[in-house]
Design goal:
The chain has 19 helices and no strands. The chain is mostly helical.
Length: 468
């Protein structure tokens, strides 16, 4: 039975309040454009990529190329669905409409958990950097300052979030472009002798650790792309959601190619992959030190701090909007749907409280509770992406039947590339299952996914009985 396209209530408050959209639309095209540009550049690229390089060697370039191709497909799917049906809950709303309440609940709350865990990890890392600079203030003191500041900024008008991300992204983009220019000059021998292909083919070759190294590096590259989906959530609060999300998604291809693949190619060409500084200090600091750039470490620490604060800001925003969307659809505590001055304040506070609680857990139980939370968060994005694929398959066919004019953005090679992306995600799960740590991550994630899916299924059954 076909279903007509209807307006989901997720952008509306509970039935006790007027059935009108209550979130503001304070984001402009320049905000979304810069969020889309800078959202791809995170602390995972500046710091976490060093772990991947140490594991996979120069072949990390291929891993980022493969993972980047997968992310391009996922973003294209999200762009198609969000341009046709802009929504604060983005993929969670679409999953509920196409697959059922269980899918919307699972993808939405898994994404919320991932973002809140990210807030905790980023706040902890930012606090450590500030403690190194200002040692008389403990790291947890800086964590508290950052949490309070960004919680407060997200409790005000959404345009403040947009302005913070605009300038944070401007700093990150400037830094990565400057790095690429300096790196290319270094490859050409401007700062000394050209390295040629010595670092790519020497030190054990292009695949120094073989398949095992590729498997270990794969998990790092996947997690480095998590959070890009926030731009499709933010688009719903912009002045022209359909047009803006379409523009943002269309720039994803060259952003990923230039920022990730290009910078990784520069790193492994200029420095040996097995240089201990790559993992210890980060690949970007190591490259700048090798080129003799003055104060390279300090410069990159500032950039990394900006990247961490940017991610904190974006994750608090994204998690609060996802929580608001879920509870507005009856998939969580109703009090979280309270809105004031166009901002879902209760959802913002809940996300910040959970993030701060995770920080405390990291201090008290760093190798148990906090590690378990981060492990689940690492798999959450794969769960979300798999549901996105299945949702897009259903939604695209329905739109083609009922409203083809809404398809201003179309998934490439549909349905073949959608199925290819889904198969690739299953392949990543399979690779994880072959390692001890990966298997633990999968087991913890499976428990949470099963609980959320069961809760969503029960709600779906109750709704059917009420509607019968």
């Amino acid at each position: 039975m076909s279903r007509t396209i209807t307006r989901s209530p997720e952008d509306s408050p509970p039935t006790t309040e007027p059935a009108t959209p209550v979130l503001s639309h304070g984001l402009k095209q320049r905000h979304l454009s810069m969020i889309a540009l800078g959202g791809v550049i995170g602390a995972g690229l500046f710091v976490g990529s060093g772990v991947g390089i140490a594991a996979a060697g120069p072949a990390i370039v291929l891993l980022f190329a493969g993972t980047g191709a997968l992310v391009m497909l996922i973003m294209r799917m999200l762009g198609e669905m969000s341009a046709a049906r802009p929504s604060t809950g983005s993929f969670s709303v679409h999953a509920e409409e196409e697959l059922g309440t269980w899918a919307g609940t699972t993808s939405g709350w898994m994404y919320w958990l991932m973002l809140c865990a990210g807030v905790a990890a980023e706040a902890t890392a930012a606090g450590a950097i500030m403690h190194n600079w200002v040692p008389f203030v403990p790291a947890y003191g800086w964590v508290a300052v950052f949490m309070v500041f960004f919680c407060a900024s997200n409790l005000t008008a959404v345009k403040n979030f947009g302005e913070f991300e605009f300038w944070f992204s401007a700093v990150k983009i400037t830094a990565i472009v400057a790095f690429l220019v300096l790196g290319l000059l270094g490859i050409l021998g401007v700062f000394g002798s050209s390295p040629g292909t010595g670092n790519l083919t020497g030190h054990g070759g292009f695949f120094p650790a073989g398949a095992a190294g590729l498997a270990a590096g794969l998990l790092t590259t996947v997690s480095g792309f998590a959070g890009l989906e926030t731009v499709t959530i933010a688009a719903a609060e912009s002045d022209n959601p359909s047009r803006n999300v379409a523009r943002a998604v269309r720039t994803a291809v060259w952003r990923i190619a230039v920022f990730y693949i290009g910078s990784m190619a520069v790193v492994v060409t200029l420095v040996p992959w097995n240089d201990p500084r790559v993992a210890a200090n980060g690949p970007y600091v190591t490259v700048l030190d090798t080129l003799g750039i003055p104060a390279a470490g300090t410069i990159m620490q500032v950039v990394v701090l900006v990247a961490l604060l940017s991610a904190m800001n974006a994750n608090i925003y994204g998690s609060s909007r996802m929580a608001y969307s879920l509870v507005s659809r009856g998939q969580g505590p109703r009090f979280l749907a309270r809105v004031s001055r166009g901002v879902p304040m209760a959802a913002v506070l809940a996300s910040c409280v959970f993030g701060f609680a995770a920080v405390v857990a990291g201090i008290i139980w760093p190798t148990t509770v906090f590690a378990w939370l981060l492990n689940i968060a690492g798999c959450a994005v794969l769960v979300v992406w798999s549901i996105v694929c299945l949702t897009q398959l259903r939604m695209r066919r329905r739109l083609e039947r009922e409203a083809p004019g809404l398809l201003s953005v179309r998934m490439w090679g549909f349905p073949y590339l959608t199925w290819l992306a889904f198969a690739a995600i299953i392949g990543v799960f399979a690779v994880m299952a072959c390692s001890g740590d990966g298997l633990k991550q999968l087991a913890g994630t499976a428990i949470v996914v099963a609980a959320l899916a069961a809760a969503g299924h029960l709600k779906q059954r109750r709704d059917r009985k009420v509607g019968a």
